[in-house]
Amino acid sequence: MVPRTRSAGSGSNQSPSTAQQSPTGGSNPPESVTQNSASTTTPTTPPTITVNGANPAIIQVGDSYADLGATVSDTGPGQAGDTNLGYQTFLNGTLTSNIVLDTSQVATDTIDYVATDNNGLTATSTRTVLIVPAANTATAAVTCRPD
């Protein structure tokens, strides 16, 4: 016997688990019921954060610093395939919308990029910025005297 598909509200009052009487007096096995439902598996893969540019970034005292940011994607199994989620930026642990470093002295700063996807899964990546002493660029002057 080929199983028939029954959908809810098909007008039948018979339960799918009730055996049917065959014309010969025996009973047939119950009909099979097929349900189409979306997968209920919750994704467990957090977003992926790729830090753009050098990490660690090394600049000299007095230089300016322009952060290159990060790229965030959420394309793990069972996820929506969002290729560029937004992220929050923290400078030395403080939430900020604009990265401005004090480059007047030697220091080590951290920039954290934090992204949360639609499933509430969170990822963090960190860039370290090293502010190092300015290189000594003074050169000895050489004076040539004609003989």
Write the layout of secondary structure elements.
Elements: E1 20-21, E2 27-28, E3 48-51, E4 57-60, E5 70-73, E6 88-91, E7 94-96, E8 107-116, E9 122-132
Parallel strand pairs: 4-9
Antiparallel strand pairs: 1-2, 3-5, 6-7, 6-8, 8-9
Can you describe this structure?
This protein has 147 residues and is an all-beta fold. The protein has strands at 20-21, 27-28, 48-51, 57-60, 70-73, 88-91, 94-96, 107-116, 122-132. The strands form three sheets. The protein has a five-stranded mixed sheet, with no helix packed on it. A two-stranded antiparallel sheet has the order 1-2. A two-stranded antiparallel sheet has the order 3-5. The chain is elongated. Residues 1-20 have low confidence and may be disordered.
The Cα radius of gyration reads: 33 Å
Helix content: under 10%
Which of globular, elongated, flat, extended, rod-shaped describes the shape? elongated
Number of strands: 9
What is the chain-wise order of helices and strands? EEEEEEEEE
Structural class: mainly beta
**Average pLDDT, to the nearest integer?**
76
The major beta sheet can be summarized as: 5 strands, mixed
Give the N-to-C terminal Cα separation.
116 Å
The neighbouring-strand order within the major sheet is 4-9-8-6-7
CATH-defined topology of the largest domain: Immunoglobulin-like
Number of domains: 2
Number of helices: 0
> At the fourth CATH level, what is the homologous superfamily of the largest domain?
Immunoglobulins
**CATH structural architecture of the largest domain:** Sandwich
Please identify the top-level CATH class of the largest domain.
Mainly Beta
Enumerate the spans where pLDDT stays under 50 for 5 or more consecutive residues: 1-20
β-sheet strand percentage: 25-35%
